TrEMBL record:
Pfam families: Ribophorin_II_C. Keywords: Endoplasmic reticulum, Membrane, Signal, Transferase, Transmembrane, Transmembrane helix. Residues 176-273 form the Ribophorin II C-terminal domain. Its main location: endoplasmic reticulum. GO terms for molecular function: transferase activity. GO terms for biological process: protein N-linked glycosylation. The chain crosses the membrane at residues 186-209, 221-240, 246-271. It comes from Roridomyces roridus. The keyword Signal applies. It is found in: Endoplasmic reticulum membrane. Residues 1-17 form the signal peptide. InterPro entries: Ribophorin_II_C, Swp1. This is Oligosaccharyl transferase delta subunit. It is a multi-pass membrane protein.
Length: 277
């Protein structure tokens, strides 16, 4: 007596070995009045040589029954999954249409070109290949090439008024201004001397006030000299980085300091004049 695991393996192998096939597969095309145009009894070993042509006002009907291969009792099988696949070999477009199968294994598919299903892919001048796909846990999977179908060529989709906005726009090309010309070094040096000239004038005036060597570094005059130098540094900083509001703020603070240091320096100069007299 076979063991239970071995019996289960044999049962599964026998189930997988059984194949599904079709009984009496038939496809018919009809015109707009319902009159039949063409009927084909499908052979599973070979597709019809001429595609089934369906015009804009025509329809098509496919009927068949799913049975086990070699079973002549006429008992149908209801697979777990049944699909029709429409495939365009030229464009690679495809569509999958699920089919409803009864408990007796009978199924049908109606195609009305007045309202085609969404599973039909975009069509071209080339016919579509129609394939039946069957899936069942108790049987081996089946893929049957049924026939080719010639459908009217798809019309291009209407253009949306905002469609051009989603296309690539021309590249924006920015023209930069030419590189700023730098003046000659001689001219830069000349204007540097003009900028430093007030300090020369200040030194000359101080030499007139103090005969002999100027006492710029005396404790009473040095703060005033430093405040004037701070103004020069502030102007240079403004030229490099600062904004006008910042310059006015810092300049106002330095102005107050310069006023007090200037009064101190003038008082010191006056006291020395009095002492000389």
């Amino acid at each position: 007596m076979l063991s239970r695991p071995l019996a289960l393996l044999l049962l599964v192998a026998a189930a997988q070995a059984s194949l599904l096939t079709l009984h009496a597969p038939r496809v018919t095309t009809y015109d707009s009045t319902g009159n039949g145009i063409r009927t084909e009894i499908l052979k599973l070993t070979q597709k019809p040589a001429i595609p089934m042509a369906v015009g804009p006002t025509d329809s098509l009907k496919l009927t068949f029954q799913i049975i086990e291969e070699g079973d002549d009792s006429g008992k149908g099988v209801q697979p777990l999954q049944t699909f029709l696949r429409f495939y365009d070999p030229h464009t690679g477009e495809e569509g999958i249409q699920p089919l409803r199968v009864t408990a007796a294994g009978k199924a049908k598919f109606d195609l009305n070109m007045a309202k085609p299903p969404l599973s039909i892919p975009p069509t071209s001048k080339a016919p579509l290949e129609v394939t039946l796909i069957l899936g069942s846990p108790k049987h081996s999977p089946v893929k049957l090439a049924l026939f080719d179908i010639q459908l009217p060529e798809s019309q291009p989709a209407p253009q949306h008024p905002d469609e051009p906005s989603f296309h690539l726009l021309p590249t924006i090309e920015h023209t930069f201004r030419p590189t700023q010309k730098v003046p000659a070094r001689a001219i830069s040096a000349l204007f540097t001397l003009f900028a430093l000239a007030p300090w020369g004038v200040l030194l000359v005036l101080w030499s007139q006030v103090f005969p002999g060597a100027p006492r710029l570094f005396s404790p009473s005059i040095l703060p005033f000299t430093a405040s004037l130098g701070a103004f020069e540094l502030l102007l240079f900083w403004y030229w490099v980085d600062l904004k006008l509001g910042q310059v006015l703020l810092y300049g106002g603070v330095l102005g107050v300091v310069t006023i007090f240091t200037g009064k101190t320096a003038l008082a010191s100069i006056g006291a020395r004049r009095i002492a000389r007299k």
